Amino acid sequence: RSKSSGRNCFTIYDKAMSAELEARSTLEGDLRDAIARCQLEVHYQPFVDALSGTRRGFEALVRWRHPTRGLIAPDQFIPLAEETGLIVPLGEFVLRRACADAAGWPSDLAVAVNLSPIQFKEAELFEMISAALADSGLPPQRLEIEITESVLLERGVENHAFMERLKSIGIALALDDFGTGYSSLSYLTAFPFDKIKIDKSFIRNLTHQPRSSAIISSIVTLARGLDMSVTAEGVETREEYERLKALGVNFAQGYLFGRPQPIERILFDAPAKSSQRDAA
Length: 280
Ligand code: C2E
Ligand code: MG
Ligand code: MG
Ligand code: MG
Prior knowledge:
Oligomer: single chain
Strand order of the largest sheet: 1-2-4-5-6-7-8-9
Number of helices: 11
Order of helices and strands: HEEEHHEHEHHEHEHHEHEEH
Shape: globular
Helix content: 40-55%
Subcellular location: Membrane
Radius of gyration: 21 Å
Strand content: 15-25%
Largest sheet: 8 strands, mixed, barrel
Bound molecules: ligand C2E, magnesium ion
Protein name: Histidine kinase
Number of strands: 10
């Protein structure tokens, strides 16, 4: 390697940088178009009552049907959407679609929608959510909002008031991915959650690591004391499910019960109004 290699490195670095920036701005432009052209789809994954195995509702999970790249998972574009502010129209699209779809399901099924921390900074968020409910006719009692701990770190007081407002109209609140972030237990007592969703990384180790059982069982005990329910995410095997039932979790979600699917592929036991939407 010659002494000049440092210089070359810079050149290469610059090129790599601009290629990356270019790719990013292409992706950003594509995402902007995707929102405008309705290339985003909402898929639904069931969650069940752990004891009975009865389906209780579905979580709405966004996907991007890219014209050349195929179906893109949210991890590939949500961060960019958050950096560019596109998460605001994207999030509104998902919420409105989910409420409209759920309004056609049997009335004992709820829909859970993920909200980004960035959306929490929007002044009109409450109005947007109430309008989505009113326009779809979905009773607020059938909507759950999932948020991660990062929302609670900033603007704690304002977010607390906002959460109380959602609850006052009947919307349920879930703390998503519990155990992956700062996981300060004080958040659980300080914010009015109805549900804690234990992150799938804990479920993965369940059957071979006794420590994971201990963690889950303490979360269950804690949640009971705070009058919250517990969902186990990412349940893939029957053994995991049996173990979680014994540990006392209230709800279970994961590939064992169903993968996220487009609405057309979901079967409902009772005649659902959604068939009217398909026919329309
Ligand atoms: P999340 O809210 O924690 O959603 C659960 C994720 O776990 C989903 O990934 C789901 O497909 C996956 N999953 C479910 N069961 C299993 C299982 O048994 N095994 C494994 N390995 N994975 C399972 P997905 O759909 O790729 O979504 C990833 C994340 O993207 C979501 O995590 C959520 O944080 C975010 N996201 C998805 N849709 C939206 C949205 O509309 N708005 C916002 N702000 N974020 C969203
Ligand atoms: Mg979620
Ligand atoms: Mg989660
Ligand atoms: Mg997640």
